[in-house]
Every structure is written in C-alpha cells, then in structure tokens.
Amino acid sequence: MTEPATRIQVTGAQPYEVVLGSGLLGELPPLLAGAQRVAVLHPPTLRATAEAVRKDLNDSGFEAHVIELPDGEEAKALAVAGFCFDVLGQIGFTRSDALVGLGGGATTDLAGWVAASWLRGVRIVQIPTTLAGMVDAAIGGKTGINTERGKNLVGAFHPPVGVLCDLSVLSSLPVNDYIAGLAEVIKCGFIADPRILELIEADPAAVTVPGNRVEGELVRRSVAVKARVVSEDLREQGLREILNYGHTLGHAIEKAERYTWRHGAAVSIGLVYAAELSRALGRLDDTTADRHRAILTSVKLPVSYRAGVFPQLLETMKVDKKSRGNRLRFVLLDGLARPITIDDPDPALLAAAYSEVSDDN
Ligand SMILES: NC(=O)c1ccc[n+]([C@@H]2O[C@H](COP(=O)([O-])OP(=O)(O)OC[C@H]3O[C@@H](n4cnc5c(N)ncnc54)[C@H](O)[C@@H]3O)[C@@H](O)[C@H]2O)c1
Ligand SMILES: O=C(O)C(=O)C[C@@H](O)[C@H](O)[C@H](O)COP(=O)(O)O
Ligand SMILES: [Zn+2]
C-alpha cells in the first residue's frame, strides 16, 4: 500500500501546496483545470518521462506538448527562453493555458521565467526531479536565467500553482547531483533547522545514497523551512535573504567556472566562507563554524577553492542581488540557526575569510 502524500502549504497572496509522495501524476490535471493547452518543459534526460506526462495529459483531455531544453545550466539562457517563446507562439498558447516544469533546478528556473514572461504571466506547475529542485528551486517562485555578467541576473518572482515531488524519481539521479542537492539541505540546517544536521551527522555516508532511510525526513524538513520563509517574504524584502546563505561566494565561483560546476558544490564552499566570515566578525562560535567544514566534507562536498582569485570573485560578488549601491551584503550566522545580514563588511575580513577556504591552506 502506498503511503499518503505529505502536503506542505505555502501561504501568502498566491497560496499553493508542495506535495511529497509517489505516483503523483493524478494531482496534475486539477492544477491545470481550465487550460486547453499544456506545455511540458524538460531536459533531454527526462524525455521519456515528459512523453509519458504528455500522453497522460492528452488522455485527460488537454492538448499537451513537450518542449525539450538543453541540459542543466545551459537551459538558463536568453536564447533558450526565446526558443520557448517561439514554440508557445506557434502553439497559440493563451493566458488560460499552462506550463509544467519537469526537471532539476535549472529546468524549473527557466520554465518558471518563461511562465512569468509569456503574455506577462501564465500558470506553471513545477515537478522537480532532483534533490535541489525538490527542497529549494521549485518552491518560492524565484525564476530566472544567467547572463554573461553573472548568475540569475535576469528573472522574476512568479509562484507556481503547485509543486509535485515524487521522491522515487531520485533513484535515477547521478550521485554527484544528489550530493549537490545536500548542500541546500545542509544550508537549511544551519539557518533554521539544526535537526537536519543531526540526521546527516548520524550517518553521512548513508545520506549520500538516493532512497536512504532519512531522505523523506530531510526533504520534508527542508521544504518546511523554504515554505515558511517564502510564505512570509515572497519578494525578498527581508527574511527571504536567509535562503541565500552561502550563495554570495557560491555564485561568484559558478561564474568563474563558467557554470560548469554544480550549483551545490559552489554553494558548499560559499557556506564555509560565510561561516568563516561570521567567525572573523566575532559572531559565530568555533564549534558551529567548524561544523560547516566537517559536515560538508562528510558528504563529499568541496570546501576549498583556488588561491589567488579572490579579487576576481570579489568583483563578481559586487553585482550579487543583495548588494545595495556600492555596499556588499552578506547573510551570516550569529549562532546556530540565527541568520543575520551584514552590510559592507571590512574588506580585510573578507579577504581573511577567503584565505580560510583557499586551497593553498
Ligand atoms: N530558484 C531557486 O530558488 C533555486 C534554488 C536552488 C537552486 N536553484 C538553481 O537550480 C540549479 C541547480 O539545480 P539542480 O541541482 O537540480 O541541477 P540541474 O537542474 O542542472 O540537474 C542536474 C542534472 O540532473 C539531471 N536530472 C534531473 N532529474 C533527473 C533524474 N530524476 N534522473 C536522472 N537525471 C536527472 C539533469 O538533466 C541534469 O543533468 C541551479 O541553476 C541553481 O541556481 C534555484
Ligand atoms: O529562494 C531563495 O531565495 C534562494 O536564495 C534559494 C537559493 O538556494 C537559490 O540558489 C536562488 O536561486 C538564489 O537566488 P539569487 O537571488 O541569489 O539568484
Ligand atoms: Zn541555491
């Protein structure tokens, strides 16, 4: 017998549910009610699944289409969005029609932005198929693409009408993509729910395997953190910034690596950097700061980066979306599960914290 699905509410002006369970395709038609056309956006790896979803939707009376995107981060580009707009135009996609984002965070970010932009906003249901997608990217309506100048620089806040997470699809995910998703799970542990850290520390090797014993609880707790935060602050006017813990340096590393690194791997180094900066500012105790490096290493995530490139990373960090004018802004910790934002930290401390993560250490 299948277990009943877990439903986590996202509240606010446009409420919706994040559903965690298995065999959730039956949840899709009611979320699309009123649409005549549906387009399922997916990466090449999920061609067969997208085709099955399309057939299912056709059988339910929709005129369903699939739109195949480039894989991974390559989907988050203006040209790819332009291609989608062209297809939607050809299909005759109207405001009552709806999109489905089926894939990892890169797919749901691109699909979400296409939904936010086409006719100034059409419905989207997100069906995340990676760990990062389920615990983070598909929830909260932060959509967007990268530009030559940096990560996610163009986008919109456009909440989905529903998020369907079938944990069984994680079994086909390459292990390094699964591990990358753990960086966002660990982020949630440090900013809001330390029980997540305890669950991982109890058996880190086991936690890196899809389908592990605590997977359901880790996903549920992380989704609960994200849902609570975006319910209160969809447009990142304050509280939502805490979800950016580890991302200021992380995004700069992703750009330096021309988006060939997994997001979670770059965020992992960014988390250690943020902890070191918090420690350098006298905000974070040694035990909690050291715990970052220990837990991330224990699940085989990287915790150091190239020496000698800090000036270049700093230039990129200046156009981070949290910056205000010439002032850099960081999410740091003032103790475990006590996130704070700090404006314009002393440049000497920024460099000192980097020396703690640079690999000539
Ligand atoms: N909008 C947000 O709030 C938010 C939050 C976190 C991350 N992100 C973004 O998400 C992206 C990272 O997402 P990601 O880690 O999911 O990576 P991803 O979307 O690049 O997917 C990783 C790889 O897994 C493959 N894949 C996806 N599902 C699969 C499955 N079930 N089985 C086999 N292969 C599968 C993909 O084809 C891809 O090759 C980054 O662009 C990041 O910026 C956004
Ligand atoms: O949802 C948010 O808010 C986040 O910051 C979650 C992050 O994990 C995610 O990577 C997000 O896309 C980063 O946002 P950005 O505004 O720094 O581009
Ligand atoms: Zn992230």
CATH architecture of the largest domain: Up-down Bundle
How many domain units?
A: 2
Residue ranges: pLDDT <50 for 5 or more in a row? Answer: none
Rg, alpha carbons = 20 Å
Number of helices: 14
Name of the CATH homologous superfamily of the largest domain: Dehydroquinate synthase-like - alpha domain
Helix content: 40-55%
Task: Describe what you observe in this structure.
With 361 residues, the protein is an alpha/beta fold. The protein folds into two domains: 6-172, Rossmann fold (3-Layer(aba) Sandwich); 175-357, Up-down Bundle (Dehydroquinate synthase-like, alpha domain), CATH 1.20.1090. It is built from 14 helices and eleven strands. The strands form three sheets. The chain has a seven-stranded mixed beta sheet, sandwiched between helices. It has a two-stranded antiparallel ribbon with strand order 7-8. A two-stranded antiparallel sheet has the order 10-11. Strand 10 (329-333) and strand 11 (339-343) form a beta hairpin. Helix 4 (105-117) crosses helix 5, helix 5 packs parallel to helix 6 and helix 5 (131-137) runs parallel beside helix 9. The protein is globular, with a radius of gyration of 20 Å. It starts with 5 loop residues before the first strand and ends with a helix. The mean pLDDT is 97. Residues 43, 45, 71-73, 76, 103-107, 109, 129-130, 132-133, 136-137, 140, 142, 169, 172-173, 177, 180-181, 184, 263-264 line the site of nicotinamide-adenine-dinucleotide.
SSE arrangement:
Elements: E1 6-10, E2 16-21, H1 28-31, E3 37-42, H2 47-59, E4 63-68, H3 78-91, E5 98-103, H4 105-117, E6 123-128, H5 131-137, E7 142-147, E8 150-157, E9 162-166, H6 175-191, H7 195-202, H8 204-207, H9 215-232, H10 247-256, H11 263-280, H12 286-298, H13 310-317, E10 329-333, E11 339-343, H14 347-357
Helix pairs in contact: 3-4, 4-5, 5-6, 5-9, 6-7, 6-9, 6-11, 10-11, 10-13, 11-12, 11-14
This protein binds nicotinamide-adenine-dinucleotide (NAD), the ligand O=C(O)C(=O)C[C@@H](O)[C@H](O)[C@H](O)COP(=O)(O)O and zinc ion.
